[in-house]
Amino acid sequence: MEESTRKRFCKICKSPIKGRSDKVFCGAICKAYYHNKLKEVTNKATASTDSILHRNRSILLEIMGKNGSQIKVLKTVLEKKNFKFHYLTGFYENAQNKRYHIVYDFAWMDFKTGEILIVRRK
C-alpha cells in the first residue's frame, strides 16, 4: 500500500488521523497530553539533580553577593554550607589551561592552597 493511502492512527487515542502525511496526533488535545506526559517524566527523573544544582547556585550567590564579580574563599566555607562539588552544569578552560567548574551563571576554580575562586559569568 502506498504511503499516501495507508491509514494513520493517533499515537495517543488511536483514532484515524486526517490531514498532513506527517501528523502523529489526531488533534491538539492528544498532542498536548503527549507532551505534558513527556515533560512530567523528565521532571521526575531530573528533580533531585535540579534541586542540588539550584542549591549550589544559591550558595555561590550568597557568598558572592548581588553585585560582586569575583571572590576567593576557603574550600571549607563551601563545605560547611553543604556545597556539592560534583554537581555542575559545565566546564571551561581558560587560556592558561585552568579549569573552571560552572554552575549556571557562576564558575569556580579550586587551588592547591585550599582556596576557591568564585566568579560571576557574563
TrEMBL record:
Report the InterPro entries cross-referenced here. Znf_RING/FYVE/PHD
Q: Which Gene3D superfamilies match?
A: Zinc/RING finger domain, C3HC4 (zinc finger)
Q: What protein does this entry describe? A: DUF2116 family Zn-ribbon domain-containing protein
Protein source organism: Gelidibacter salicanalis
